[in-house]
Amino acid sequence: MYDKDQRYTGFAMPFVLRTALLFLIALLSLIVTGCRYTSAPADLLQKPSISKDQQEIIAALQKAMPKYSVLMLPFRDDSKEAIRLIDVNGDGEEEAVVTYYNEFNIPELLILKKSGDSWKPWVVIEQPTARGMEWLKFVDLNNDGHLELLVGWVGSFESPNTLELYSFQTKGERNQKGSMSIKPIEAIPYSYAETGMLGDNGETMLAVVTEQGSKQLEESSSYQLVLYEWKGGTIRPKARLALNNTVNNYDHMLIGNISEQQKGIVVEGSYGAHGTYTTMLLWDGSTLDIIYPNERLGQDGISLTTVFSEDFNGDGIVELQIKKETPDSKGLPYSDTSFTTYWQQWNGKHFVTKGEQLLDYSYGYKLDIPDSWRGRYTWEYGSNEYEAAVFYYWNEQSEQKSELATLYAIPQKIWSTHDQEWKEEGRNYRTVMIDSGNVYAISFVSSIPPQLQQIDRQIVEEMLKVEINFSSYISALD
Question: At what angle do helices 52-64 and 14-33 cross, to 10 degrees?
C-alpha cells in the first residue's frame, strides 16, 4: 500500500533546488486539498503561492542540506509533506522538520529552528546503517506536553529493522560532521509498530510486532506483539503475546476502542498470494487476549483478498472488515471471484454486522447494500465494457437466480454518446453519481421473469423499489 520510492528533488544547484521545491509544495498542496482526477490540467499547473516563511525555509535548506540530497517521504507517516512545521520541543514555536536521503542515499531527518528572521539547523537525526525510513511518528508518550519521536529505520540485509525512540528533552551532541545530533533513548528490533490510547487515563502506549527468523534465509518466522508503556524516562514492556506465524508479514494495526466498554488492538498481515489474516486482541489493563479469530465459532481469521479494518461508521469503535465470496462464486477462478465486505463490531460478547458494502477500487466506488437486498442477492463483474457490476436476486435454498440491475461506469468524455444510444433504445436507466471523470448509471430490469415462483416474485418486486433512491447508496472511494 505504500510507495517505497517517493523521492522528489535534487540539490545539485540552487536553481534546481528552488524549482524542485516549488513543484513539491504544489504537489503536496494538491494532496492535502484532495484534488481529484476531474480537475482541469490548467488548474493543476498554476504556480502555487509561497509564504515568506516558506521562502525562508527553502533558503535555509539550500545551505543546510548535504549536496546531492533528495527530499523524501517516509513509507508510513501522518504527514504528506517532506517539509512540515511542528512544535517538537513544546516551547510554543514551530520547528521545520525535513526528511531526506543524504548524498550516500542514507535517510536522515533535519530539524530547523527559527532564529529572528531566519531558520537555522538545530538537530540532525540519523542512522548510518539504515537504507530507508519506514515509519515516522511524533507522539506524547508520557503526557507531559512534550512530543517524543519514533523512527522506524529499514535495515540492511544483514541487520533487522530498528525502531528508535528520541526525546527532545535530552542533551544533544556533535556528530562526526560537526552537526548537533541526539541519540535514541531506546532501540527495538521490529517488523511493524503503532501507537494508541489504551490506558484508563488516556495514556498512549506503543505496540510493536517483532519477528524472529529470516524469510531471505528461508527460515520460518516467529511473530510476537509487545505492548510498551512509558515509565521511568523510557519505554518498558507491559505485555507480550505470540501472533500467527503463517502470515507473510504484518502490515496494518489499529489501537483503541473495540467495543463501547473495551479497548484493544487489531493486527492484520498479508496471507498467501492475495489474502489477509486478521487478529483482534482485548486489553484488560494487564494482559492481551485473542477474541478473533475463534476456531470454536468457525472463525479462521482469513480473508481471501486484502482487507483493512477501521472505524468505518465513525462511532469511535474499530470494526473488522471481513470479505466473503458471493454465494455463487464457488468454483470460479480467483480473478473472476467477487467479494462482499461485511463490517463486524464486537459488542463485548459476540460480533454484530454494522454494515454491508461492495467496495470496488478499480472503478472507484463503494455501494452500501440496501436492507431489502441483504441475504437475497448476489453480484458479479460485468462481461461487457463499462459494466462495473451486475446484481441478481438469489434464493440460497433453491439457488434460483434472476437479474436485477447493472451498474455502469462510463467516462464522461463519451457519456453523451451512450446517453443518446440508450435513449433511442428506450433503456431504463438513471445517473446516480459523477466522480473522477466517470458517470455512474444504474439500469434496472424492466420486467420480472414469469418463471419465478410467486414468493420469489414478491421479493424481487420489493428489491426493485430501491431504484428510485439508488444514488443514496453509492459514493466515491477515497
Answer: 130
Burial of 269 per CB tally in 10 Å (0-12, 13-18, 19+): buried
Terminal Cα distance for the chain, rounded? 14
Answer yes or no: are the C-beta atoms of 478 and 36 closer than 8 Å.
Answer: no
Q: Is the alpha carbon torsion for 75, 80, 81, 84 positive or negative?
A: negative
CB 308, CB 323: distance < 8 Å: no
Q: Which of 457, 344, 466, 360 is nearest to 405 (CA)?
A: 466
CA distance 216 to 212: 12
CB atoms within 10 A of CB 296: 6
429-459 as b/e: b if 16+ CB within 10 A: beebbebbebbbbbbbbeebeeebeeebbeb
Closest CA to 207 of 217, 198, 194: 194
* Residues 370-389: b if buried by 16+ CB within 10 A, e if exposed: beebeebbbbbeeeeebbbb
All three cell numbers of 235: 519505554
pLDDT band of residue 216 (cuts 50, 70, 90) is: low
Question: What cell numbers appear for 232 in the block?
Answer: 521511568
Confidence of residue 202 (pLDDT cuts 50, 70, 90): confident
What average pLDDT does the structure give for the chain?
86
Cell of 202: 488516556
Measure CA 358 to chain center: 18
- Judged by DSSP in three states, 16 sits in helix
Residue written as cell 444504474? 442
Amino acid at 197: M
pLDDT of residue 36: 34
Cα distance between residue 394 and residue 327, in whole Å: 8
**pTM summary value:** 0.83
Spatial contact of 327 and 391, defined as CB atoms under 8 Å apart: no
Instruction: Tell me what pLDDT residue 409 has.
Output: 97
Nearest to 43 by CA among 54, 32, 35, 53: 35
The values of phi and psi at residue 216, to 5°, are -65, -35
Q: In the structure grid, which three cell numbers stand for residue 356, read together?
A: 454491508
Angle ∠(289,320,440) on CA atoms, nearest 5? 175
Residue 89 pLDDT grade (very low, low, confident, very high; cuts 50, 70, 90): confident
**What number of other Cβ atoms are within 10 A of residue 390's Cβ?**
19
CB 31 within 8 A of CB 80: yes
Q: How far apart are CA 267 and CA 178, in angstroms?
A: 42
Binned at pLDDT 50, 70 and 90, residue 335 comes out as: confident
Q: Say which DSSP state 337 is in.
A: -
> What cell was used for 192?
511493524
Show the beta-strand stretches assigned E in 73-221.
76-77, 83-86, 95-101, 107-115, 118-126, 132-139, 148-154, 162-167, 173-174, 180-181, 186-189, 192-197, 204-212
Q: What is residue 151's predicted lDDT score, i.e. its pLDDT?
A: 97
